[in-house]
Amino acid sequence: MRTRFFSLAGALLCALALCLPSAARAERIKDLASIAGVRQNQLMGYGLVVGLDGSGDQTTQTPFTVQSVVSMLQQLGVNLPQGTTLQLKNVAAVMVTTALPAFAQPGQLLDVTVSSMGNAKSLRGGTLLMTPLKGADGQIYGMAQGNVLVGGVGAQAAGGSVQVNHLSVGRISGGATVERAVASGLGENNMIRLELNSTDFSTASRVVEAINKHYGSGVAAALDGRVIRVQSPSNSDQRVAFIGTLEDLDVKPARQAAKVIMNARTGSVVMNQAVTLDSCAISHGNLSVTISADNQVSQPGPLSGGQSAATQNARIDVKKDAGKVLLLKGGASLAEVVKALNAIGASPQDLLAILQAMKAAGALRAELEII
Question: For position 351, what pLDDT does the model report?
Fold first, then answer.
């Protein structure tokens, strides 16, 4: 009997624990903000992939491939006679892209992505020739070269073809070498700036409070709802340790704003847990129009001298489903909102219009964003 009592008491405690609202979860500053100046820089270059097994660009439709090959041969000391027509099947013009990480130094290796920009059928088995990678300022920050690895396969024969995955894009692991470092102003004037991932004055205030509580008053100050200025040590070694400890500080972010994301093209609706719903009444009905045509042939009477003629009889049916008025009770949690919306029984496309109408009526406590 006592065992049964304790089992029942334990079940009740578990149920009460599930019903209680969960406490706000603390997050690291590293997850909430980034340090100004510590960022990637995009690099891009134009190059040639050679050694393809007849799957390269068709030179009649991609003249820039031929021009690139001629220019490359001239730089190598090979001059082609005037009027020479090149039929290149094993060469493809490509764009090479990568990202230069923060504090990258000359000699560091980077992975690159090689993408066909012509009508090459496949880059499988090709080799990327030396390609300079430039930044937004036009300066060369890296050089790429190597064998292209394509994660797919394809074959054609007798008018049929089969293909697995994408063949026009490949990757070279460690295929680029950094040639120039990007100057960093981290710690300039003994200051660093934290930039929140999203603008929020409450979260910015809590971050400042957490930093000052750990390091002392006046170390951090919020410039606005996104940027926080923090005093840092002048010594580089101490600054690195300071930033490492700073990023591990726990902060309880402010409650997220209620938001509903609607995709008008696919009918997808996504909402976060802060969305609430006030009581409202909804009536929704569908109107369908069906148009059908019946083609017939009209024959003239005997000896009348007339000709046969094709006629078309159109039929239009209009059907309107009766709309029912549904009472949706207010919901204070996401589960209750979902349950209320499911009671409507509308399609995803109809739900977009219903949510917009609920927002206009003031029953939906959330921001609508249509993408």
Answer: 78
With a CB cutoff of 8 Å and minimum separation 6, the contacts of 48 are 65, 68, 69, 72, 91, 92, 93, 94, 128, 129, 131
Whether 102 contacts 146, CB under 8 Å:
no
Question: Would residue 54 be called left, alpha or beta, if left means φ above 0 and alpha means ψ between -120 and 50 degrees?
Answer: left
Which tokens hold the place of 76?
């190598």
Looking at residue 2, what is its pLDDT?
A: 43
- pLDDT tens digits, one per residue of 197-238: 988 899 999 999 999 999 999 999 999 999 999 999 988 889
From 231, 223, 225, 220, select the one nearest 204 (Cα to Cα).
225
Please name the residue that has the structure tokens 């008008």: 264
Angle subtended at Cα 325 by Cα 320 and Cα 327, rounded to the nearest 5 degrees: 150
* 45 φ/ψ angles, rounded to the nearest 5 degrees: -150, 160
Residue ranges in the chain whose pLDDT is less than 50: 1-23
Task: Tell me what pLDDT residue 18 has.
Answer: 38
